[in-house]
């Protein structure tokens, strides 16, 4: 009876995982989930052994319980080191196979722990946190576009009125935009740190660190403008504008790295030179 329940649970988890990851392969969405499982099991192992450079055997795969984003990043790194790149179909089959094998390993570990009365049950990182903290971390996906939009808008207005007299409404608009920008940046950074997995790869770490740095720059710029308005009036606006323009640049790079994690290596446009700079800075 327990064996039947485990088999049904395994099938449900695998089909659900493939269904949720279907958005990254439009051509494959027309296949039945069971057909994708069969094709992945038949061809994925062959591609893994013959074409991969970083994870060239199944033993290395079994050591990592990665999710879709992390396996996608591993494949991206592998493709950068090979002259003979994977086709779209091969990439889809390989990713299906890795997700399939990961789910099998995860469930096998859970079953082994259940059968061992003395073994301590592992707790996922999110399960160690209160529900409110977990929900706040997932809020990152809802608010991440606000600092991008408002910091960019502040930088654009500062650029437009850099060499001309701003209108009367300018100060009110700038302060409103800065207020929304700094609050949304703090919420986005804090929720992003919580949302990030503990086994984050280099791209995720760079995205997180740049997000925190961007928030700090926005906060410092807002503070300088406030002090300038209260005490010295326009004498410190030079440094304020430098920080705002720098914040807009960092926010753009941070957003680009985030888009790369979600959409894959093909989303990248100028990320290779940026990555080299980040490696030099140890970010």
Q: Could you give a short description of this structure?
A:
The chain is mainly α and 283 residues long.
Describe it.
- The protein is an all-alpha fold and 283 residues long.
- It has two domains: 2-122, no CATH class; 127-281, no CATH class.
- 73% of the residues lie in helices and 0% in strands.
- It is built from twelve helices and no strands.
- The longest helix has 31 residues, at 202-232.
Topology of this protein?
Blueprint (H helix, E strand, L loop, with lengths): L1 H19 L12 H19 L6 H5 L5 H13 L7 H28 L15 H8 L1 H4 L1 H16 L9 H26 L6 H31 L4 H27 L7 H11 L2
Helix pairs in contact: 1-2, 1-5, 2-5, 4-5, 6-9, 8-9, 8-11, 9-10, 10-11
Give the overall average pLDDT: 73
Residues in β-strands, percent = under 5%
N-to-C SSE string, H for helix and E for strand: HHHHHHHHHHHH
Question: Roughly how much helix do the residues carry, as a percent range?
Answer: over 70%
Radius of gyration equals 24 Å
What global shape is seen? Answer: elongated
Number of domains: 2
**Low-pLDDT stretches:** 1-5, 18-31, 118-123
Major sheet: size, sense and barrel closure?
Answer: none
SSE class: mainly alpha
Cα-to-Cα separation, first versus last residue: 52 Å
Number of strands: 0
Q: What's the helix count?
A: 12
């Amino acid at each position: 009876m327990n064996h039947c329940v485990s088999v049904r649970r395994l099938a449900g988890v695998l089909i659900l995982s493939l269904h949720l990851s279907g958005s990254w392969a439009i051509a494959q969405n027309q296949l039945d989930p069971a057909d994708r499982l069969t094709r992945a099991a038949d061809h994925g192992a062959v591609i893994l052994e013959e074409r991969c450079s970083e994870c060239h055997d199944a033993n290395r795969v079994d050591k990592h319980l990665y999710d879709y984003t992390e396996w996608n990043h591993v494949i991206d790194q592998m493709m950068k080191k090979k002259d003979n790149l994977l086709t779209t179909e091969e990439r889809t089959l390989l990713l299906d196979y890795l997700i399939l094998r990961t789910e099998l390993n995860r469930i096998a570990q859970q079953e082994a722990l259940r059968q061992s009365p003395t073994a301590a049950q592992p707790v996922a990182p999110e399960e160690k946190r209160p529900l409110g903290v977990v929900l706040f971390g997932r809020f990152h996906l809802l608010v991440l576009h606000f600092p991008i939009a408002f910091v960019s808008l502040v930088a654009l207005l500062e650029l437009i009125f850099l060499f001309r007299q701003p209108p009367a409404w300018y100060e009110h608009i700038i302060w409103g935009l800065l207020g929304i920008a700094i609050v949304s940046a703090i919420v986005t950074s804090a929720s992003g740190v919580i949302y990030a997995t503990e086994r984050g790869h280099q791209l995720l770490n760079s995205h997180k660190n740049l997000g925190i740095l961007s928030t700090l720059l926005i906060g410092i710029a807002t503070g300088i403008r406030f002090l300038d308005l209260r005490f010295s009036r326009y004498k410190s606006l030079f440094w304020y504008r430098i920080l705002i323009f720098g914040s807009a640049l960092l926010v753009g790079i941070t957003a680009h790295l985030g888009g790369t994690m979600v959409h894959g290596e093909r989303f990248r446009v100028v990320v290779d030179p940026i990555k080299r700079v980040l490696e030099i800075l140890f970010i």
